[in-house]
Amino acid sequence: MALIITDDCINCDVCEPECPNEAITPGEEIYEIDPNKCTECVGHYDEPQCQQVCPVDCIPVDPENIETEEELMEKYHKLTG
C-alpha cells in the first residue's frame, strides 16, 4: 500500500525529510507521495515515519494503491538495489 497526503495537509514540511525513499515532494498546493517510491517504510522502519511526525494526521493508506507486505518489501529491494 502506498500512502497519500490529503487536503488536510498544512504544508508544515516535517514529513518530507523523514521519508527514507524520497517519495514525498512538494506539490502545487500540498505535499504529494509518489506511490512508485512509497513502501510505507517497509525495509527501513516498523512504521511509516511520515505518519508518525504528521501533526494533522493527514497521511492515510491510499485505497487505490493496495500492496501486500511482500510487495512492499520487493519494492524496497528494487529501490535500494
From TrEMBL:
Q: Which UniProt keywords apply?
A: 4Fe-4S, Electron transport, Iron, Iron-sulfur, Metal-binding, Repeat, Transport
Q: Which domain of life does the UniProt lineage start with?
A: Bacteria
Pfam families tied to this protein: Fer4_7
Q: Which organism is it from?
A: Alkalimarinus sediminis
The protein here is known as YfhL family 4Fe-4S dicluster ferredoxin
Matching InterPro entries: 4Fe4S_Fe-S-bd, 4Fe4S_Fe_S_CS, PSI_iron-sulfur_center, YfhL-like
- An example Gene Ontology molecular-function term: metal ion binding
Q: Where is the 4Fe-4S ferredoxin-type domain?
A: 1-29, 31-64
Write down the PROSITE patterns for this protein, in alphabetical order.
Answer: 4FE4S_FER_1, 4FE4S_FER_2
Q: Name one GO cellular component term.
A: cytoplasm
